[in-house]
Amino acid sequence: MSAEGFNLFFAIFPDEETAAQIKDVAVRLRMRHGLKGETFAQHRFHVSLHGLGSPYERRPAEIINAAQRAAERVTAAPFDVVFDRADSFDRNKPDRFPLVLLGHDELATLIAFHKQLGLALRKSGLGRFAAPRFEPHVTLLYGDKRLEGEHPIAPPVSWTVKSFALVWSHAGKTRYETLGAWPLLGET
Q1: b (16+ CB within 10 A) / e for 15-29
Q2: DSSP letters of 54-77?
Q3: HSE of 39 in the Cβ direction (CA atoms, 13 Å)?
Q4: Superfamily name with CATH number, domain 6-183
Q5: What are the percentages of helix, strand and coil residues in the chain, rounded to 5?
Q6: What is the DSSP letter of 144?
Q7: Which tens digit of pLDDT belongs to each residue from 76-135?
Q8: Which of 49, 111, 120, 188 pairs with 129 at a CA distance of 20 to 30 A?
């Protein structure tokens, strides 16, 4: 995320109970590995699906309207996600390593959902934002050092995804506004 301005993205969010579990995992990992950096607030834990540009100075009405049309095209059933390990991403920013939750095979349905939303973005004229690569993760904090290797999480963090949201983020201010949320009403 940028240091100032606003970001626009699609995401899935855990339920409150799962967000509390994620917070607990984040605090334990931070302490166990001596990481500096504050864990995210519970309301910020999410999986980003597609970024729709950043930074913005003001809300891009045309992009938001097209994104909402894209979201309405998506027909999916609720699905489960499981995150069973932690690792750090290397983003080439010294002293700012994202500590994230990752999963293995249990995320195939999430990856398929990401592709379906990307196709809907293309059909709505927003193909430039349809990210071809997707590594599902939940960011816990930005640490001052990189963890070496993957670290199993027991018990794994899991939840049933029942909706997805279009989010307007106040970059650098830890504030999210939901501009729309769409339930997953398809049949399994």
Answers
A1: eeebbebbbebbeeb
A2: S-BSS--HHHHHHHHHHHHH----
A3: 22
A4: Cyclic phosphodiesterase (3.90.1140.10)
A5: 30, 35, 35
A6: S
A7: 999 999 999 999 987 666 678 999 999 977 799 999 999 999 999 999 999 999 999 999
A8: 188
